[in-house]
Write a structure and sequence with these properties.
single chain, 62 residues, alpha+beta, 2 helices
């Protein structure tokens, strides 16, 4: 598994606000690959976490 976390302090809330369709598309793609994608906002900061499987198919290894 590959886990990526991105955090931004002072960012406007991203969960359910402007651009949420793009975030939903990213979540759906992560789930299609067997992983997860979450967005959380609290105290003026936003964190996006993606957990993705690392497989030969996903990596493009043949």
């Amino acid at each position: 598994m590959l886990k990526i976390e991105v955090g931004v302090e002072g960012a406007q809330t991203l969960d359910g606000g402007s651009g949420s369709a793009d975030l939903d598309a990213q979540r759906e793609r992560a789930e299609e690959l067997g992983g997860s994608w979450t967005v959380s906002s609290a105290d003026g900061s936003t964190r996006i976490t993606a957990v993705l499987p690392v497989t030969e198919e996903v990596a493009g290894v043949r």
